Amino acid sequence: MTIPTRILSLAMFLVISAAAQATPLMEETFDYTVGPLAGNNGGTGFSDAWVSTIPSTTATIDITSGSIAFSDYATTGNKVTLDLVTEPAGPAVAIYSRRTVSVGVPSGDMWVSYLYQRQDAAGDNTSRTARVGFNDGVIHFDTAIKASSSQGIAVRYEGSFGTAAADVSVQDGSAYMAIVKYADLGNIGSLASFWVFSAAGFDSIKGGGIDESELDGAAVLKATDTVSTAEVLTAFLDQLSLVNVSNTYPFKFDIDEIRMSTTLADVVPVAALQPGDANGDGMVNLSDLQILGDNWQSTTATWSEADFTGDSTVNLADLQILGDNWGFGTGPDVSFDEALAQVAVPEPAAIGLLGIGGLMLLHRRRAC
Ligand SMILES: [Ca+2]
Ligand SMILES: [Ca+2]
Ligand SMILES: [Ca+2]
């Protein structure tokens, strides 16, 4: 059997293509000095500075030190913390910050991403809601982490919030990534999808770039809503707003790395992984081969399950890529043929598929 160079070339092309990124239309990384958020005017896609509305003597909306840490997701500068410190029980209080978005409603789809992390002691989540959305006074594109009267998340695509997904609390103090797709803008009946990811879920799909088809399986929660009451008008994308609304206290959370654009790759930029590096640790070694062996001939695999070609299948083409990159990062701890002998891959049937010629060729390449 000869090396499937045609397949290998295609695989390399796909990996490189998936990692390609463009600049998002709107980006706010909170690369500001620690202190009040209001008055800061950086980022991309805005026409004025942040303005805060804080009808409380104790609440704060401040830039705080460091970005939200979320696996190895690339971050810049600091983050913003919305802190409803201590208030008497009573009607809900909202604190919020807004700034004008200077880019119009994109045609087609609009994608949004941001990082979220609750900071005060978790526990009771009653009536504590964090919201990130776009509005022109009335919010039309909106996301809520912990929707009213239930844990979880909800998304609003014009009109009111759709049904919340609520079987997992994302206010447990861990960092989460929110990804939203407002599909097919300008048409009644269009769908908004809102996914929230843990770092582990993100890690499971980030390799080689994230494909939309991978989102459902990796998210800890997903909520949806449809446009039902009005078309999406240009004026609806006017201001980016961050809201902390609660009638129980304290409630303190961080928001960071907000992006809006027309593609998923624009709003969730991920560094390309080395081909063959299934577990994303920067090395191609026995651990990756073990993962490949564990998932051999799977037809539903992601990058983290050793599908390096993006066809969801773990087969000879993926083994070839792993072999070609063997030892990347630290140099080979064992030779590739020793590794093949240690790991239960390929199974006897797979060795037959690989063929003695192919196996010898892989070994010879590694021996160089
Ligand atoms: Ca940041
Ligand atoms: Ca690895
Ligand atoms: Ca594959």
Give the class-level CATH name of the largest domain.
Answer: Mainly Beta
In CATH, the architecture of the largest domain is Sandwich
N/C terminus separation: 20 Å
Domain count: 2
- Listing every helix as H and every strand as E from the N terminus to the C terminus, the arrangement reads HEEEEEEEEEEEEHHEEEHHHHH
Fraction of residues in H or I helices: 10-25%
* Structural classification: alpha+beta
List cofactors, ions and other ligands.
calcium ion
Return Rg in Å. Answer: 23 Å
The major β-sheet equals: 9 strands, antiparallel
Number of strands: 15
What percent strand?
A: 25-35%
pLDDT below 50 for ≥5 consecutive residues: which ranges? 1-20, 348-361, 363-368
Fold-level CATH name of the largest domain: Jelly Rolls
Question: Helix count, per DSSP?
Answer: 8
- Tertiary shape: elongated
Mean pLDDT: 83
Blueprint (SSEs and pairs):
Layout (H helix, E strand, L loop, with lengths): L4 H15 L6 E3 L6 E2 L14 E3 L6 E5 L14 E6 L8 E8 L9 E9 L9 E8 L3 E7 L7 E5 L17 E8 L8 E7 L1 H7 L9 H4 L2 E6 L12 E8 L4 E11 L2 H4 L18 H9 L21 H9 L11 H7 L5 H20 L1
Antiparallel strand pairs: 1-15, 2-4, 3-6, 4-5, 5-15, 6-14, 7-11, 7-15, 8-9, 8-14, 9-10, 11-12, 12-13
Helix pairs in contact: 6-8
This protein binds calcium ion (3 copies).
